[in-house]
Task: inverse folding
């Protein structure tokens, strides 16, 4: 079985590798290893008990379904009888899906950094039966080569050291765990954060901005849309045009580059080069969600139709290829198909001509940089393969001028060709799909859809967001109301993380603002109570990544952003916003505590905490509660709501009080709306900041002016 194609339950069972314990798991990544000859265990007490009973160390392997090098290590080593025999003799072997168990991954990735100064996936950890690591590595080849020790040499060496110097290894593991526990418990340097740290982050981004290609730094380049969202809001706050320029150039370059799937749409994980040309081909749900947010906000801030189109195209990909019939969203699509990375997405020129015809194919090939020798090399500096990544090196307007064709006509030609190629591509063997449904990543997609629904006045996006919200709240919630992390095959399980709670609270706020259904705010308040009860560090403030009943050796409090924003950053922002929308001072104070407790850490590396800075920018103010009272669906109400939604107002939250109900449901969750009434029998807006409201207005333009006109403080808030 080719691991890139995912677990195939119909595949014949090889005599030498009958199904192992992973065959009963739900994770597609674990199921890819279910027929390995390695005697894999899932993470759990059964494995640790056996290790203690037999006096063996643990071989812990952590990866994920869309990881190319995880597939390589599986095919090269874990499916190999010789390697498997060594692993089974020396270790108790545990396989973990990092997306299913981010709590485990987070601890042992931190341990890898402590032991080696580096990390990555696949992550290989060797540790004691009481979960204390003493060896860490990333990808390990089967045989030693190029200065890398292979498993065939490494395993006997570790076995010998374990037999002769076991106490030293256990002591080393103790030291690693103690260091991680100390880092989690050491009170960070508290303080106040003001405009200065926002300026420092902006200046750093400005220094490392790639003015030629967009993005920041050199290869490889990651989208990091939360950095772009910070810069958009900073530009809106300060009026500094370079902030918009950096965002605009980056989003434009990504949309034209190979990192964007020019045929099927949606974004690949990252670019291996500085030009956004050659991607690492997997597609992750969280990238689609965060990039939809960035492109949507960029459209509102700049009015550039290209950004709206890209957001819509990315959503179309998710709704077409990444959506479960029940309404939830799948996690990822692999980079590999038929054992080759990127094969599904690459084209020869002959294939293009075969689908589009000679004349149209030649023109399409010129526009998208398709050549006979190919523009794709399997390795940097390697030989051309005859295969091509589609990308736009020049805007369509430039090609229209060259072809003496109206730009609209050329755009139609390109779209018609794209659809023909998409239909042809659908006949290929698709990459494996990781169809597990994760609460945190679904929440990001829900928030993105709700933002896009408002910005583009698109009811279908809101409907998709509400279906996914219902899916999470019915399928991924325990009877006592606490969230779960993963759903697949009709089974929900695994304790929720901080990210699950923080992102879902954020999503519910966004869906409320798109739908004005008060139940979404009520549920957000309920989840906030659970988050505070089970995840808050009552001594120092901030939130642990795992709950108080977690089964990991260290409870960490992350604040640095990775591929997605940190849970503490999103919690700070979401709880503060929710507090403002519901006049709940406890939620605001919890958010303020997060801001203070991480002040020292954020000050040291502001650009590593860009979503924290987005939340800080909102908290520094001025921020606005816009309460609109009107008759639902009336023309004047729609005009008032449309005016605030079509303007870039990231520091405003919008609450709607229907005026045709004496005691509407919103009053139960936001009591201060009880006395909000229409003026002159017209839809009326009350623009408030710090709970003090301006004179109400029935003029949509005046409402927008009030949101934009208030000055901003220059001193830190206390």
Result:
């Amino acid at each position: 079985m080719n691991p890139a194609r995912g677990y195939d339950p119909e595949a014949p069972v090889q005599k030498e590798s009958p199904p192992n314990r992973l065959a009963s798991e739900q994770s597609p990544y674990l199921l890819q290893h279910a027929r390995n000859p390695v005697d894999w265990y899932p993470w759990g007490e059964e494995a640790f008990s056996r290790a203690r009973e037999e006096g063996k160390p643990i071989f812990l392997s952590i990866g994920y379904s869309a990881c190319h090098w995880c597939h390589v290590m599986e095919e090269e080593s874990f499916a190999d009888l010789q390697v498997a025999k060594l692993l089974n003799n020396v270790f108790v072997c545990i396989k973990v899906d990092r997306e299913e168990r981010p709590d485990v991954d987070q601890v042992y990735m931190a341990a890898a950094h402590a032991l080696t100064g580096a990390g990555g996936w696949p992550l290989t950890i060797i540790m004691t039966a009481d979960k204390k690591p003493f060896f860490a590595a990333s990808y390990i080849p089967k045989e030693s080569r190029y200065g890398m020790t292979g498993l065939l040499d490494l395993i006997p060496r570790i076995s010998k050291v374990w037999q002769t110097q076991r106490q030293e290894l256990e002591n080393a593991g103790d030291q690693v765990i103690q260091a991680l526990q100390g880092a989690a418990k050491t009170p960070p340097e508290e303080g106040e954060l003001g405009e200065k740290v926002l300026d420092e982050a902006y200046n750093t981004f400005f220094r490392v901005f790639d003015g030629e290609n967009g993005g920041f730094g050199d290869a490889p380049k990651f989208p990091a849309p939360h950095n772009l969202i910070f810069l958009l809001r900073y530009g809106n706050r300060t009026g500094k045009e370079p902030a918009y320029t950096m965002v605009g150039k980056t989003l434009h370059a990504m949309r034209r580059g190979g990192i964007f799937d020019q045929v099927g749409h949606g974004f690949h994980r990252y670019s291996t080069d500085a030009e956004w040309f050659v991607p690492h081909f997997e597609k992750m749900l969280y990238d689609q969600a965060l990039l939809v947010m960035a492109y949507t906000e960029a459209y509102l801030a700049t009015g550039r139709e290209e950004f709206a189109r890209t957001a819509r195209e990315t959503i179309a990909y998710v709704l077409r290829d990444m959506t479960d019939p029940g309404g939830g969203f799948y996690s990822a699509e692999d980079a590999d198909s038929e054992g080759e990375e990127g094969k599904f997405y690459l084209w020869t020129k002959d294939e293009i001509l075969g689908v589009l015809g000679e004349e149209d194919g030649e023109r399409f090939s010129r526009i998208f940089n398709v050549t006979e020798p190919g523009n794709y090399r399997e390795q940097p500096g390697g030989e051309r393969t005859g295969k091509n990544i589609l990308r736009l090196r020049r805007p369509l307007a430039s090609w229209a001028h060259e072809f003496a064709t109206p730009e609209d006509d050329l755009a139609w030609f390109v779209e018609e060709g794209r659809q023909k190629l998409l239909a042809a591509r659908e006949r290929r063997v698709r990459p494996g799909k990781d169809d597990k449904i994760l609460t945190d990543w679904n929440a990001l997609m829900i928030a993105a859809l709700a933002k896009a629904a408002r910005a583009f006045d698109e009811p279908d996006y809101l409907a998709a967001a509400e279906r996914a919200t219902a899916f999470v709240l019915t399928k991924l919630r325990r009877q006592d109301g606490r969230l779960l992390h993963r759903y697949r095959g009709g089974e929900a399980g695994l304790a929720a993380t901080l990210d699950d709670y923080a992102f879902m609270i954020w999503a519910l706020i966004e869906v409320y603002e798109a739908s004005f259904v008060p139940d979404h705010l009520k549920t957000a308040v309920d989840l906030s109570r659970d988050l505070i009860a089970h995840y808050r560090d009552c001594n120092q403030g901030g939130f642990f990544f795992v709950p108080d009943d977690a089964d990991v050796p260290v409870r960490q409090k992350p604040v640095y952003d990775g591929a997605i924003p940190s849970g503490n950053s999103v919690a700070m922002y979401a709880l503060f916003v929710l507090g403002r929308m519901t006049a709940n001072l406890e939620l605001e104070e919890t958010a303020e505590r997060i801001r203070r407790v991480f002040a020292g850490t954020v000050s040291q590396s502001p650009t590593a905490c860009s979503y924290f800075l987005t939340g800080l920018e909102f908290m520094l103010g001025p921020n606005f509660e816009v309460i609109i009272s009107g008759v639902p669906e009336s023309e004047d109400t729609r005009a008032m709501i449309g005016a605030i939604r079509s303007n870039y107002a990231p520091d405003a939250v919008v609450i709607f009080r229907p005026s045709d109900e004496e005691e509407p449901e919103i009053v139960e969750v936001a009591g201060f709306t009880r006395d909000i009434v229409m003026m002159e029998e017209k839809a009326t807006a009350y623009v408030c900041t710090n709970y003090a409201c301006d004179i109400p207005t029935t003029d949509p333009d005046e409402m927008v002016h009030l949101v934009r006109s208030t000055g901003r403080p220059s001193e830190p808030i206390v």
Notes: The mean pLDDT is 92. The radius of gyration is 26 Å. The first strand starts at residue 40 and ends at 42. Residues 268 and 283 are 5 Å apart (CA to CA).
